[in-house]
């Protein structure tokens, strides 16, 4: 579910408009908004039906600032708002699920419409803290999640009405997801669907976006190598922690202000495979056979030094059955200076999380094709 929500968010972000309407051209020092949610827990697994005991509620406070054209990518993405939101969730099952608190950085895009009535889309990826989690003795009914601190995804498509120059009303559906990437089992995840209403107020000096900045772009290519490490668990719950490592190399082709395509090769070492070999009576000659090799193709959505990535790959060496021949990677990267990369990825087999990749990379000297 986490991978699917991220992928949907990337697709919508990539399709955002290239220019804002006159109404969207308003810029303020700061925007502050309050949102009320009401909805339900999505029981995406039949064993989770007992967790849905009532309607959930949430209260959200956000602070944001409109990107007014100081950098070329602002215009490429239609002058979005960037901010951070804090959310309190009443999950309507305090005995088993407890409550949740989320802190999520986000980007909010104008999608369509002119004048006071428009469509927008907010995408956020951050952290969520849960007051109740699985415990084999005290909370064995909570089969959804095993860690208090989790990744959180937020998707907010909105119908936006400008009441005045400074005040906006927004309404629409919301999808939220919380999970830990299989760092701890269980990890079925918590998925929430709500309908919401919000008011946002522009504070400080009133201004307008700068449409005059040049968006001339030169195509680029570069090589990058990166490595990562993490821990994971496999079923049954309360088992031991296993180490997982990744080494990768890839070549990227930046084709526009927003987009780059890439291909590369991956080496994965997952120590949990040794126990899975034993459980399936698969003979191995050494622990090194818990290795996998693959190749991938990818897409990168670029926001200056920050980017989201999506990869799809296939194994050409994989001794363990059951996970299939394909793997996927979705995540974010941040470039420090010209060459260093900090990264956070989630590796999956279709909808099933394999492990989180916490890592770093190095971008080799890039080539630029001048128009």
Question: How would you describe the overall organization of this protein?
Answer:
Helices cover 7% and strands 57% of the residues. It has 371 residues and is mainly beta. It has two domains: 2-208, Porin (Beta Barrel); 219-369, Porin, CATH 2.40.160.
Our estimate of the beta-strand percent is over 45%
Order of helices and strands: HEEHEEEEEEEEEHEEEEEE
The CATH C-level class name of the largest domain: Mainly Beta
Instruction: State the end-to-end CA separation.
Output: 42 Å
Record the SSE blueprint.
Elements: H1 2-14, E1 26-42, E2 56-66, H2 72-76, E3 81-90, E4 99-112, E5 117-130, E6 149-162, E7 167-179, E8 190-208, E9 219-232, E10 242-254, E11 259-270, H3 272-279, E12 291-303, E13 306-317, E14 326-336, E15 340-349, E16 352-363, E17 367-369
Antiparallel strand pairs: 1-2, 1-8, 2-3, 3-4, 4-5, 5-6, 6-7, 7-8, 9-10, 9-16, 9-17, 10-11, 11-12, 12-13, 13-14, 14-15, 15-16
